[in-house]
Amino acid sequence: MKTILISGNDTGIGKTWICRALTNYLVSQNKRVQVVKVVETGITNNQKGDAATAIENCSHLNEKEYQAFTLYSFVEPLAPVTASQKNNCKLCLENIICKIKNLPETDWRILETAGGLAVPLDETGLDSVDLALNLPVDYLLLVVQNRLGAIHQTRVLTAYAPYSKIPTGIWFNEPTPVESHVTHSNYSELANLSIPIWGHQHYRSQELQFFDAFSKQVTLS
Fold first, then answer.
1. How far is residue 31 from each of residues 76, 155, 176, 179, 221, measured CA to CA in Å?
2. Considering 24, 132, 167, 179, which has the largest number of Cβ atoms within 10 A of its Cβ?
């Protein structure tokens, strides 16, 4: 089994959209895929969660090939630790890891965290980096919204990500249209970054655009 953890530079940048496209791609390659939303906030019982959204394109396929799990879900649209406290729940990284390890086996497990990479998932301040380092995570995929300002956001992520220990890549996503000169500037300024750009999800596209750096580091077999 291989595990990929998807995080990013902020909330609302399209992490679930990338999860959805990646899930659809892997299932189309006859892989069993499991999408796990680690912590979800701002969700009610009447709403479809991120994990369920990520697998909805696979509904015409054999249900044994894909699964969706949400480990913790809270109604308040707040940071995970605060939302859990308002629900009289205590988030603990050790418990999160235990829940993940107790999930059924699969070919690919895609973990999606809440908010950005440094958002605490534990009352002591442990975050997605700690989660990745304490699990057998094979790849860390960091989503960045392609826009003016993405250069700064990507460089900050690079400084914080444990890329020397876990193969890590940036994936641009476009929730809104982006002018081509902005994209070209982002590519140019980030060309020599320690973390490579693995792909680009263009506005409204449901197809993954893999870059050569992705295929050189990530084995999808």
1. 35, 33, 31, 36, 8
2. 132
Give 220's DSSP letter.
Answer: -
Cα–Cα distance for residue pair 176/50, rounded to 1 Å: 19
Lowest mean pLDDT among 49-58, 76-85, 95-104, 107-116: 49-58
Q: Is 37 a catalytic residue?
A: yes
User: In the CATH scheme, what is the homologous superfamily, with its name and number, of domain 2-217?
Assistant: P-loop containing nucleotide triphosphate hydrolases (3.40.50.300)
Phi first, then psi, for residue 69 (nearest 5°) are: -135, 140
14-41 residue pLDDT tens: 999 999 889 988 888 889 999 999 999 9
**HSE-up of residue 59 (Cα within 13 Å, Cβ side):** 5
- Predicted confidence band of residue 1 (pLDDT cuts 50, 70, 90): very high
- Domain spans of the chain, in order of start: 2-217
Pairing relation of β-strands 197-201 and 168-173? parallel
Given a contact cutoff of 8 angstroms between Cβ atoms, the answer to whether 143 and 173 are in contact is: yes
**Cα–Cα distance measured from residue 109 to residue 5, given in angstroms and rounded to the nearest whole number:** 8
CB 131 within 8 A of CB 162: no
- State the Cα–Cα distance between residues 7 and 220, nearest whole angstrom: 19
